[in-house]
Every structure is written in structure tokens, then in C-alpha cells.
Amino acid sequence: MGKQSQTLADALASLPDEERIILTMHYLKSMSAAEIAAMLGVPERSAEAIIKQGKARLSAILGI
Fold it and tell me: Which of 2, 31, 36, 46 could bond to 42 as cystine, CB 3.0-4.6 Å?
């Protein structure tokens, strides 16, 4: 695993469980917010908000 990949892995690991799980489902499993919401039993807007929040937190951690 390269340095950049390790940095991303570390950044993901530092996220709260809910954000890490939902971002993994969205970006690595290519699931939509609607699919994630249905699977987790939460409103679609909640899944969308967590994706947005998690993405912002990752960007801040990675400095991008």
C-alpha cells in the first residue's frame, strides 16, 4: 500500500463509525444515498448529510 493510500486508510479509520461505514458504502461499494438509507433504515436525507459531512471531514484530515 502506497503512502497516499495509507494516509486515506488512516483518515477513514479516524472517522466516527457511522461516517466511515456510510462513506465506504457510497464510494467503495458505489451505493446511492437511497440504497444506503434503505439498507440502514434511515431517511435518505440523513444518509446524504452524513456523506457530505464525512467527505468534508476527510478533506480536512487529508488537507485537500
Answer: 46
